[in-house]
Amino acid sequence: MALVNHLTASCWRNLQGGRMHKQLSVILRHLHKSATSEALEISATGEEAMPQRLITPADVGGTRRIKSLKEMPGPSTLSNLVEFFWRDGFSRIHEIQNEHRKKYGKIFKSRFGPQLVVSIADHDLVAEVLRAEGTAPQRANMESWKEYRDMRGRSTGLISAEGEQWLKMRSVLRQLIMRPRDVAAFSDDVNKVVDDLIKRVCTLRGRESDGATILNVNDLFFKYAMEGVAAILYECRLGCLENEVPQETQDYITALHLMFSSFKTTMYAGAIPKWLRPVIPKPWLEFCNSWDGLFKFTLIHVDKRLSDIKAQMEREEEVKGGLLTHMLVTREMNLEEIYANITEMLLAGVDTTSFTLSWASYLLARYPQVQEQIFAEVTSALGPRTVATADDIPRLPLIRGLVKETLRLFPVLPGNGRITQDDLVVGGYFIPKGTQLALCHYSTSLDEENFPDASDFCPKRWIRKDSTDRVDNFGSIPFGYGIRSCIGRRIAELEMHLALTRLVQRFHIGVSPLTTDVKAKTHGLLCPAAPIHLQFTDRETTS
Amino acid sequence: MALATALRRLSDARLRRLCGRTAAGLTAGARLPAQRSFTAGTHALRSDDKVTVHFVNRDGDKITVKGSPGDSLLDVVINEDLDFDGYGACEGTLACSTCHLIFDEDTYKKLGAVTDEELDMLDLAYGLTDTSRLGCQICLSKSLDGIMARIPESVADIRQSTDGSV
Lengths: 543, 166
Ligand code: HEM
Ligand code: FES
What we know:
Strand content of chain B: 5-15%
Structural class of chain B: alpha+beta
Oligomer: heterodimer
Radius of gyration of chain B: 18 Å
Distance between the termini of chain A: 38 Å
Bound molecules: protoporphyrin IX containing FE, FE2/S2 (inorganic) cluster
Number of strands of chain A: 11
Largest interface: A-B, 68 and 51 residues
Mean pLDDT of chain B: 74
Strand content of chain A: 5-15%
Order of helices and strands of chain B: HEEHEHHEE
Low-confidence stretches of chain A: 1-61
Strand order of the largest sheet of chain B: 2-1-5
């Protein structure tokens, strides 16, 4: 989930009081350093900044005047505060995106105290922003994450690092886990976890009186996602899908849940100014506690692997291994950087994948005809028993379509962030460097203009007729785009493709009478607002 | 840390063995070791008979260079130090589509299969055409000798330069 804490949330975290002043003044100081800004006479809010002197209509070669932020539409500060704090807008951020888009258009501004957020709710404008990115794009203010790491003497990881440090680590990691063909090598490891997932489905449904129901499937998929990503990151099995979950794994899950359940509190952890901490200590303490728990778990597993490697070396055995071994042996990153990245990747990789799997199986259950089409594709490509590997996925376009369509309807990250690193003109507005942008994935992916019958679940819309057939666009980019996009994308896709293929092949998935219409709510990530209960019955062919 | 050095040496040797192809960019040759021989090293193909490639840059100038069989077109751009602004930002890891190239129809047909992942990233490329490909996904072979690859117009630069010259 944590991705949340920083991504979507970051905007909101930044909004509150005191700290904002600090941040704003930092931004302003920053701006004043640049020639432009000096000439701009930036006002206290930054909003008046309008470089009339620098950019005239003629300069941009068009006839349209570039408008200032001041002219940008958007909800009033007061109505925004009421919306978010009084009417708990945080859990409806995704819907509010849509409402505001309808009301104010493709680009609008919102104000949270002194923090200004410019929302971009149009696929072409999102493309403009992401294509103009520099060499180390910044998502949001990560001060509280950095502060924790400084305090404990830990390094930042990909999520929390910026600038040079980020680029250095990103350059190492992307060469290891971003190329589809490199990630395909994890296929067998992931399939072993899928074996356990299937067994677990059978165990759990066997405990119910109808022999079919799995209560709260997200609980199951959470364990699958955690086991899957750990199999790759830690090169070991955690036992999440066993009847008895080992204590240290249980402790980790507790830390993760703490991070998640105290989402709002931890969000405030960054927002509450330091001098107020003695008075309101809880948010910051919980924030630190959950990070302690997350790091601790990584340390246990990484140190264990490290001592195994050392022992092997001493016995002069050949050292073999996967991702972690490679990192520990090559030391392209130092040990602290390895700890931090493994921790942040595990955090970013579990809830994202498990929510998507929950939504995907929910949608399959709600749309039995679609499920039958996918089942037909899987059985004709693989037969009833062949276990799919990464190499089979190109022959299963509907499985890929299923994942894309699920993420279109339920983009786990309903909004992403960018802090502009240059002065920009977007949608006819001048946006000064240092502005927090919110890229509204949820509203663009449900936009009829991009996706006809946008609210329909239709994996087929992603199928290409041939290789020159273009299907999507910037309307649905659930993993982001460009050099700061999701580094775990290919890992997540592999885990989801292999799990869903096997589930569809093996079971008919139906909705339990206990579950009706499940809506989404934003809790940092877009998650099911109610537990999803499903029934898994064996396909005749497998019996 | 003698151990660390030993480990490093060991893995270097292994990496060299496993990685025929240099990955473009900063972490040349960084591939996972052992068990998983990730890249079926293409170095067997490597020889002195080079492949000629013509690039047409954004100003319309033609630049002729040579690459080795097995290299990707992105590798060629990097090895030859060609200065195409913003080209290949993600170092060939299929995350960006800034390595977009446009070919003529006949060449396009010779370029070999396109993966789903490449198609997905191509969808997000600026100035996409029916004969577009991602340079980081095209591997040179003798049969591609003499091909011409055009660098598409760059993204309309929405950044405003800070010196006021816009
Ligand atoms: C369905 C699954 C997932 C979705 C939808 C997802 C989505 C995203 C998105 C939208 C971002 C922000 C990208 C941007 O700012 O442009 C991101 C970043 C990130 N994700 Fe994922 N993610 C998923 C799974 C994973 C997994 C499995 C891992 C780890 C193996 C992971 C690790 C990360 C990391 C480390 C970042 C920060 C990258 C950086 O700042 O350089 N994610 N993810
Ligand atoms: S270099 Fe980024 S996709 Fe080719």
